[in-house]
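Reviewers of the previous submission asked for a worked example of the structure-prediction workflow described in the proposal, so we include one complete record here. The input consisted solely of the amino acid sequence. No template or homolog information was supplied to the procedure at any stage.
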Amino acid sequence: MDRPPSPVRERGKGGEASEGRTPPQPRSPLSCYPFPVQAPIEREWRTADLEELLIASSRTFALAIPHLPEPTRREVTIAYLLFRVADTFEDATSWPRSSRIEALERFDRLLGSPARQEIEEVSRRWTDEVPCEQPEYRQLLADLPFVLDSFFALAPAAVELIRQHTRRTVRGMAGFVARTTDDGELRLRDVPDLQAYCYTVAGIVGELLTELFLLGQPTLAPAALRLRRHARAFGEGLQLVNILKDSATDATQGRRYLPDSVDRGEVMALARRDLQAASEYVLILQKAGAERGVVAFTALPVRLAHATLDRIEEAGPGSKLTRREVYAILQSMNHALDQNEPAVDLLPAA
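From that input alone, the workflow returned the following structure tokens.
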């Protein structure tokens, strides 16, 4: 699974863009606010372009998001891209700490009161300045005006939900970046600190997804309390698996998420407990009559996380599922849904 394997964001690992590379260009001239009514073919083109950005910046969720029904699919795609922008600033450990904090704070303001000229100006500057782990992330920064155009064109209720939760994560990230050393290194102190970090970057995403599901499917209202109760663990469990998987690589890049004072087995056990809650979350959705696409979207990353955690226990950090194994898990999930069986398995009680 990729980082994070949740509806959460994935932090892909790769080299920075080569020197001398022509900065990516925005895909198209964009209209000024307020948004004009567009012809159907133009809306179709923009949706396809969002999908292209998603595929370029994600692997796990490029598999999961297409299962979602509209308009939730578009809302979650845009939310993912906005969280990925914030991730890019947080991950830029070779960028000065003050620059990372300033970028997060400015992005926070852009989400609150968009100004076309400012968005275009910071998009050009960030495309040139931010040291990106992958060139695809640089392209996302170049396309930020388009992504924000698409975001503010969503239904007002969806805009407010995504804005509220994204800003919470952005502000939380700025707090963690402020704790980094001059070399960009972040060391988490203990399990509560690790959980606080996972909540900031993934638990909030689980809460956002829950609210978008409830917004898009009023029939889920009777299950709202139970879904909200499990939403945080849903995100945290998926994030913990990624942290365990990528711990060796992260450490070389200044991200020491596993506290030195904590036994790795304790973190593995915490991840198991959270994945159990994540499985319960999926089953609550399924039993409440959520559309198949919503169940599939949540079940796939949970199944992948369980399998990845098993692989880490067997082979250690850095071990991944093969493409064949991912495909088999996807097929197994689809078979379960076809047969109206539980989309995920609950582990035996300890």
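The radius of gyration is 19 Å. We consider this example representative of the routine output the project will generate in years two and three.
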